[in-house]
Amino acid sequence: MNATVEQQYDALKKRMERATSKVGRRVEEIHVIAVTKYVSIQTANEAIKAGISHIGENRLEGLLEKKAVIGDGATWHFIGSLQSRKAKDVIGHISVLHSLDRLSLAKEVQKRLVEREKTLDCFVQVNVSGETSKSGLAPEEVDSFIMALAEYDRIRVIGLMTMAPYAENAEETRPHFKALKQLQQRIADKEYVHAPCTELSMGMSNDFEVAVEEGATYIRIGTILVGNEQVSE
Ligand SMILES: *Cc1c(COP(=O)(O)O)cnc(C)c1O
């Protein structure tokens, strides 16, 4: 029999405990986002029952489908790249956007937030590895991008997000997470009102322990937590 989400969450917490204790952090400093893009509404519901309060989706359709059932029982995160034309549909349904990566998107998001009289917590996505298949800003573009975001007063930059390239040996991801942490700290030190930039969204099933050791405050976990129903289990 397959492990339940609850069992997998317990196993994840144990691994988080080991990783945090190695570097003198506490598990409570880290928010676990269950990434439900590969799984059914029912499985997403199991995550909520297991006590997980953050759900991440990377497509509008998946977000709407799950939110229709789970509703405000979770905090909703949009973690996928967002096409500007879909922003108007996504914005009303999420608390956090992890993939802000261009001013044209910021402009569209701002417009939709003004209409709704809302503000939105956002992560700026950074491509720290330079891998061409990954989206996000180059590290050297981040400072000027964040300065330019001051113009969009409905957007609050709470931190930086990255996806490390997949590595057989997770240790290889460490330099990327370290680089993101340094960049985040440098921006936080500027104390921008619109960009406190205190958070780090980094770490997935394959590399979250390294990300936690390097300072992640949000980890985005799919496969090892809720499973991946697209591959045989
Ligand atoms: C799919 C996805 C995840 C989760 O990936 P797993 O390897 O299944 O944990 C995390 N972040 C983003 C942006 C994703 O698209």
UniProtKB/TrEMBL annotation:
CDD domains xrefs: PLPDE_III_YBL036c_like (cd00635)
Pfam families the record matches: Ala_racemase_N
GO molecular function: pyridoxal phosphate binding
InterPro entries xref list: Ala_racemase_N, PLP-binding_barrel, PyrdxlP_homeostasis
Keyword Signal: no
Residues in Alanine racemase N-terminal domain copies: 10-228
The keyword Glycoprotein appears for this protein: no
Coiled-coil segments: none
Requisite cofactors: pyridoxal 5'-phosphate
Modified residues (N6-(pyridoxal phosphate)lysine): 37
Alphabetical UniProt keywords: Pyridoxal phosphate
Entries under NCBIfam families matching the protein: YggS family pyridoxal phosphate-dependent enzyme
PANTHER family, per database record: PROLINE SYNTHETASE CO-TRANSCRIBED BACTERIAL HOMOLOG PROTEIN (PTHR10146), PYRIDOXAL PHOSPHATE HOMEOSTASIS PROTEIN (PTHR10146:SF14)
The protein's name in its UniProt record: Pyridoxal phosphate homeostasis protein
Species of the source: Shouchella lehensis G1
